[in-house]
# Entry
Amino acid sequence: MGVKFLRGGAFKPRTSPYAFQGLGVKGFGIVEKAALATGLPAVIEAISEAHLSPIRNVGGIAQIGARNMRNYELLKAAARAGLTVLLKRAPGATLKEWLLSAEYLLKYGNGEVILCERGDSFSRPGPRGLNLDILRAALNATALPVIADPSHATHDRALVPAQALATVRAGADGLMLEDAINPATALVDGCQTMGIPGFAALVKQIKKLPKNG
Ligand code: PEP
Ligand code: MN
# Structure
């Protein structure tokens, strides 16, 4: 289908301390196995410095999530570890704040940074959807790749395809989409997770869009 990366969270930053916190090291092993089986690089979120070297050891890309966009010490540490970093925009963060966080990675690291727009709320109710203005502004302001995450932006799989198509039309460099064989049994974010048939149909639609350079 043209998928270039696998993303799986093992260490989950959850809003509620009572929510499932991720499988931790065991989950990490599962993501590693999936990456090896598919030959795709794995993107794994680091929520503390301790997660950086395990990610580096499997040749992974470190996600620094929305909650940690302003965790400047974690940004420096990820950069110094030589990792490629996928940096999500924090809800409400301005373009300048987001790009300055990226500057921490560039100043201390190897320059391999991917920006990811993910909307302005952490949960429902709240503003739904991607901030396409900021996405477009980021594409204009920087040569770094800019992708978007319609799943976390909408918290609703029914809203994901339209947002994904809008992302591609805006000229973004890629998409992050949460998918599962059976979203109903997902322990995290099942409501925003697409099933495989829906995902395949969306990819087909995306491929039909005219290329915008
Ligand atoms: C995630 O990508 O799984 C996640 C927790 O996203 P965000 O940091 O954008 O809330
Ligand atoms: Mn998620």
In short: Residues 113 and 212 are 22 Å apart (CA to CA). Residues 9, 13, 65-67, 88, 118, 152 surround phosphoenolpyruvate (ligand 1) (CB under 6 Å). The chain is about 40% helix and 10% strand. The first strand starts at residue 6 and ends at 7.
